[in-house]
């Protein structure tokens, strides 16, 4: 983060719940933060505005399949 740019690629899991606060805080402090997340995700689906940029990538597994797994 010393260069002012940060790419965050969290895996699906509970660690994102605390990691998003760090990404938000760094963005608020002037860092350029890009979060790369899957299109389908339980924990990463918040629809609120972000101080950071969110980019998504397609996945073959959909919510129905995740719920059944």
Automatic annotation (TrEMBL):
Superkingdom of the organism of origin: Eukaryota
Q: Which GO terms describe its molecular function?
A: UDP-glycosyltransferase activity
SUPFAM superfamilies annotated for this entry? Answer: UDP-Glycosyltransferase/glycogen phosphorylase
Q: Which positions are tagged coiled coil?
A: none
Which Pfam family is one of this chain's hits? UDPGT
Output the Gene3D superfamilies linked to this UniProt entry. Answer: Glycogen Phosphorylase B
Q: Which region is the signal sequence?
A: none
Q: What is this protein called?
A: UD19 glucuronosyltransferase
